[in-house]
Design brief:
Order of helices and strands: HHHH
Structural class: mainly alpha
Helix content: 40-55%
Strand content: under 5%
Shape: globular
Largest sheet: none
């Protein structure tokens, strides 16, 4: 799934909707498991920590850090990505 097939334009939009309480945790996980992510391009330098791509797996990592998903959810999402 990507933005064109969803009500959300980016994976980070999905995470933000969950943070606002607009979607359930189950819907968050289901949507992130089926999302088509863009590559996480990172430069090699001081600015790396500030670089994010809203339609990359960065959104899943943010959801985990923000306690919107737990380790089990993260692993489910990651495994689906790893199988593609």
């Amino acid at each position: 799934m990507s933005g064109s097939e969803s009500q959300f334009a980016t994976a980070m939009d999905v995470v933000r909707a969950a943070a606002r309480g607009d979607i359930s945790r189950e819907e968050l996980v289901r949507t992130l498991r089926s999302w088509t992510y863009e590559p996480q391009y990172k430069t090699t330098g001081l600015a790396d920590d500030w670089e994010t791509r809203p339609n990359s797996f960065d959104a899943v990592e943010y959801a985990f850090i923000a306690d919107l998903i737990d380790e089990h959810d993260y692993e489910l999402i990651f495994r689906r990505l790893d199988n593609d």
